[in-house]
Amino acid sequence: MAKKKKSKLKLSPILAAASALLALVALLLIFAPAIVGKTFGTSYTGIETVFGKTKNNITILKFSFGNLVPYLLLLVGIVLAVLATLGKGGNLVAFLTAAAFVAAGVLLFCAVPMTAFNAGSLAEETAKNYTLAAGTITGGVLSLLSGLLMLAKVFVKK
User: pTM for this one?
Assistant: First the structure.
């Protein structure tokens, strides 16, 4: 009888790499529409909601640190996920990565209230007229999935 060959491919680095890849896609969704107007159909990308938008010398959106944080967390998480893929840091790096991805996912779903509209006293009323767009929703879901994959890496011993 022939002996069964053991696979040298380990599941743990594959989970970490898949997590990093999903997070990279979530990070790239900063270029997709992040918020969209309910009545006007106006949409703004993640870049515009973070760094602001000016049209005809009129500031529509101002810089929003709250919208910058999830993208920074995704970036830090990707670096940590690459380290975890290479086998560096052990479970601590995996937990920190998972925490960064989950926090980024939750914060991406808070994009509308964290957007800095330049409407003065009407900023709250303006924010009520906007909702999340597909780019932010997809980025949030992918970020949460990345966090789950990193947690799975911790519990898988292979």
Answer: 0.88
